[in-house]
Amino acid sequence: MAGDLSQTVRALVFDVFGTVVDWRTCVAREAAPFLARHGLAVEPEAFADAWRREYVPAMAEVRSGRRGFVRLDVLHRENLVRALAGLGADVARIPGAELDALNLAWHRLDPWPDSREGLQRLKQRFIIAPLSNGNIRLMVDIAKRAGLPWDAILGAEVVRDYKPSPAVYLQTAEILGLAPAELCLVAAHNGDLAAARACGLSTAFVARPREHGPAQSTDLAAEQDWDVVAADFGELAQRFGC
């Protein structure tokens, strides 16, 4: 570990969607009966992908200043309508209560098998918290369901901006009373880590090669010399002396 990062870092913050939890499998599972009920001939996993594709463009409207900050639950609900319309659904005929219920699929995501134990080990020595674009209630619901032992809930809604805006990383360090290098972002996404490193944060990459399904072609390996590269959260905890 470069420069014995375990002695420099005082807190680890985590990307959540894809890094800590398996969003694709769980959203597809929740969507399957909805799609069948409404006669939509699309595989649940393909629907989950279509919904997720709206994620970055929706946040870009906020990051650019063209739209004021709204929490991710709001964006997810709007993105759900766009995804369904793009798949040919007559969204006007679907009761709003059904759309609201499906939108909560993002609150019921399962952790990767190694997430909970690895976080519990890291918590013994470090402050641990999400640094997610998910809003506070969303992160709380996932944590309670999945047994994630966060010390705090941090991220986009606290800062009122979305990653990879520098403010999300820098203000999170300031909230914790830390210098940027004392805060380590753990993520399965090279782009997230690059934005954090540009702000002076320490970085740790954990590959999740099935986040986007068996045909995933991105983020299969570390693309820079991140401070730590680990196969899973168990190895991550070991590398940090936990």
TrEMBL record:
UniProt entry keywords in alphabetical sequence: Hydrolase
Pfam family, one: Hydrolase
InterPro entries linked: 2-HAD (IPR006328), HAD-like_sf (IPR036412), HAD-SF_hydro_IA (IPR006439), HAD_sf (IPR023214), S-2-haloacid_dehalogenase (IPR051540)
Keyword Hydrolase part of the UniProt annotation: yes
Record protein name field: Haloacid dehalogenase, type II
